[in-house]
Structures are given as structure tokens and as C-alpha cells.
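Table 4 source record.
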Amino acid sequence: MTAKIVTVVGSYNVGLFLKGERLPSPGETVIAAEFVESGGGKGSNQAVAAARFGAETRFIGRIGEDSYGHYALDMYRRLGISTTSIQIDRTIHSGVSIILIDKEGNNLISVAPGANLNLSPQDIDDAQSILQASTIVGFQLENSHDTVFYALRRVHEWGIPTFLDPAPATPLPDDLYPCIDIIKPNESEASILTGIDVTDVPSATAAGEWFLQQGVTVALITLGRAGAVLVTADVRQHFAAPLVEALDTTGAGDIFSGAFLAAYARGQALSDAIHFAIYSAALSTTRLGVIESIPDTNEVESFMKTTV
């Protein structure tokens, strides 16, 4: 297996960001103060973050043959992300996300998946050599669930570590859990999947134990400003997050995932990879946007030193 390669199977959505004083109520129009257009999608964000943090990164997904899709390809090439397994779908548009953000950094998001839903099991089989050469493979749930579940099973069969960010949350087949080496839900996703009301460290720990009972090897429950909880067969550990003045929390979970994947791929211990991911995500929330908000490794390491 080639060392230090992160492969992400996932989604690309162009992000259209509108930031204003507050979020609208149903039927209400609110004037925004800022507009930003940027590459997005959970899979793409995680791949970009992993590359930003130094991992050799490959992305497997589908985009439309439109301006948004061409922008995505240009972005990946600039960042050194392999585009070999990105399919251009001429039957439908690229994915689109519209993100509304208030002055506190809270957001509302609506997504039209487009080409993402056409990612197929055949696309996974065609990328077998790329997947088998990976140090770790990351997944989310913005593509066809049948394809994601197929890919998780295949990668597990090949003995490659798998990482699932189960968002948007949906019930998972019971026999899929043993194929997941690391699962990383936030509070709401963990609540949906486990039936446990995850609101704090003890309930997050209980949710993590539930995942292990289903066959997952490592459960990593993120708690926003409250940090994250790691649960393995031998460890129950809470990681605190640094205090920051959040400008925009959009994509912080994806940046956490990308940072974790990069740290894992370069051989860091789980606890060190989580610590790095938490600080990467926290620092990103002090900036507007997702791709634009990703810090580099030196920035994160300096931030970690100044907040100790």
C-alpha cells in the first residue's frame, strides 16, 4: 500500500453563500450584506482540506459539464488533487448548495445534488486501483446511498481503512457498520443514528459505545464548541475545543474531517490527529467561506501553541 495517500469518495457542490444579520423565517425575505461563490460539497471540502494539510489526495466523484464543473476541475488541479476518477456527467448539472449565514455564524443550507446522485458502483469498480493504493478512504452521504454503501464494503474487503462522515444522516444497514473503521458524526447525526439524545460528553460517549456495539472500530463524535469525544474498545476521551469568535461555521465539520484524514495518513496517533483536526476546524470558523477558510498546517500548529 502506498503511504500517505488520502482518497475521498464523495460530492462536489458549488457553494453560494449569503451572509446577513439574521436568518429568514419561512416566507420572509432578508437582505444579505455579503455574497461569496466557492467550491463546496462535503466530499470535495474534505479532499481540499486534506490536500491543504499536506496529504497526497485523490477525489472520486461526478460533476456536470457546466461552468461549476469546470471550476471544480480547475480548483483540484491547482491544489494538486488527482482528477483521474472524476466523471463528467453530461446528463445533469453539477451539485449546487445555497448557504444562508447570520452574524453569529449560524447557517441554513439547501442542496440540489445533481450529478452527485449519478455516482455509480461501476465508478467505484473503475477506481479500484486508486482505492487499493490509499492509506485511508473517506466517505459521506451526499451521493447515492447504494453507491456509498457498495464502496464502503468494497474498500473494507480490500483491507483499506474506511472513514465515514455520516452526513446528511440517514439510517445505515446493520451489516454496514462492521465495514466502517472510523465513524465521525456530529451531535445531531449521532442522535439520528443511535436514538440517543446527544447533547454533552456523557451522551456522546454513550453514542460512541453504541457504534462500537454495531461493529465500528472507532467512534469520533464531534460536539462543535464543546470539542469531540473519542470512543474505542480501550479509550473514552474528551477533547476540548479552543475558544474562538466564530464568523462562519459552514464547512467546519468537513475541515475537521479533512484535517483528521491528512493527519491519520501521515501516521499520527488518533489522539494527535483529533487534536489537530479540532484546532483546524476552530480556526476555520474565524473566516468566511469554506475553501477560503481552510488554514495551512503552519497556521494550525502556531494556533495550537498560542492556545495551550
